[in-house]
Amino acid sequence: xxxxxxxxxxxxxxxxxxxxxxxxxxxxxxxxxxxxxxxxxxxxxxxxxxxxxxxxxxxxxxxxxxxxxxxxxxxxxxxxxxxxxxxxxxxxxxxxxxxxxxxxxxxxxxxxxxxxxxxxxxxxxxxxxxxxxxxxxxxxxxxxxxxxxxxxxxxxxxxxxxxxxxxxxxxxxxxxxxxxxxxxxxxxxxxxxxxxxxxxxxxxxxxxxxxxxxxxxxxxxxxxxxxxxxxxxxxxxxxxxxxxxxxxxxxxxxxxxxxxxxxxxxxxxxxxxxxxxxxxxxxxxxxxxxxxxxxxxxxxxxxxxxxxxxxxxxxxxxxxxxxxxxxxxxxxxxxxxxxxxxxxxxxxxxxxxxxxxxxxxxxxxxxxxxxxxxxxxxxxxxxxxxxxxxxxxxxxxxxxxxxxxxxxxxxxxxxxxxxxxxxxxxxxxxxxxxxxxxxxxxxxxxxxxxxxxxxxxxxxxxxxxxxxxxxxxxxxxxxxxxxxxxxxxxxxxxxxxxxxxxxxxxxxxxxxxxxxxxxxxxxxxxxxxxxxxxxxxxxxxxxxxxxxxxxxxxxxxxxxxxxxxxx
Length: 567
Description:
This protein is α/β, with parallel strands linked by helices. 40% of the residues lie in helices and 20% in strands. The protein has three domains: 4-48 and 453-563, CATH 2.40.50.460; 57-318, Alpha-Beta Complex (inorganic pyrophosphatase (n-terminal core)), CATH 3.90.1640.30; 341-449, Diaminopimelate Epimerase, Chain A, domain 1. The strands form four sheets. It has a five-stranded parallel beta sheet, sandwiched between helices. The longest helix has 34 residues, at 306-339.
């Protein structure tokens, strides 16, 4: 499928002014301006993130109520339950809060709901567990903002709730003692994009102040917080950038035993960055909840020695292997189903269902199908007596609103702009699929059906060198709203040494007549014919470092290739 290439616009006068202020390469000034950085102080905060620049936790609405209730529980020796979701954000949040609170209050335990037996978020089983064990206070992390009925149920049993969440709240809020969520309409906290683990961290910071703890204990697990930020795909701006920057530093210099064990078991040689957290560390953490029971991920992070951490890490590696195999088989089966549909090319949405598919990987499969056909996608499977599924969107299309429009066919649903989940009765699968197809057809824009590549800057081959790569390196950590820069190279051609590797990738050897450069293009083998036609081509790429046989070389990581279009 051909992709849209869009070069980001920029005010050249502002670029020149910023270059003069900072005395840096013009390419860097352009990249900074595209990221909203227009003056020296903004540039300092960007390149030198300081923990001192974090906002006061007391700016959160209800922070005083939350801290006072926890202080009361400690004083009266009440049992506290830390309750978190089964994904990376939830399990890391539970781990850091447990490690923080346990030395202060031995009567603390944790609870992670089972993905298949209890489902997402607060569960009745979890509240019943708390009641049976004499727990008087539940602190929920990364969940709870929509649990109006269940929080009321807990209150009827004499259990108080403190909710730390970052998901969008509904008009009716749970009757909790305190709700920490910057997305509440009346919450004055200035940064709205913290993940669930980040909200829990701010509560720890406030407790540290109130209880006059002087050893900065709240900051001891920043590598776990960076992992949550990476895995939850939140913007790498503001406080998230500060926390990720210092969290990566800790991950590489003095990691949590669990992070170290996952790193060791993955045979990673290079330093950890956000990309490795997303694609190597996070899937192993998530695999625990997808394939079995997520509590082992928490046990991994609260392990107090290397041997115990390696034990749990090996279980997560095994779960991840099972997850990858299930993912491969289900994706293959789904693609075969879709290929057999004569009308597949005319559809605006994808809905596939098989009752035997593993519920833990349907979200991953939905992402793969979205990438393959590039349209809003729902993957459904049987979960007990009902059908459950996950959905993924394309850039710019509001998936949540589309699913909301089909609510008459659903038992329940939730999510956000780009991803969602739902449950329904099996008899309604076809009706839902038809309704979803119709609402997508009616609302999706033509350009949203074509994959988009946003290009930061056009450069010449003579500018591709280690100095440029080092400049880009200063812009880390990369992630949403601060992605690794994408460059455009025009009017180059194949040297004759480019080749297909492993049937699906291209090893590039490109020249402009004066300079030659090498690169790799994953999954681009179908476009190899463009290199064989002895014509000018354009490349969209990022700069990458290749470490092979202990030899470091600079290479292009090609994202897309097309016939040269004159500018």
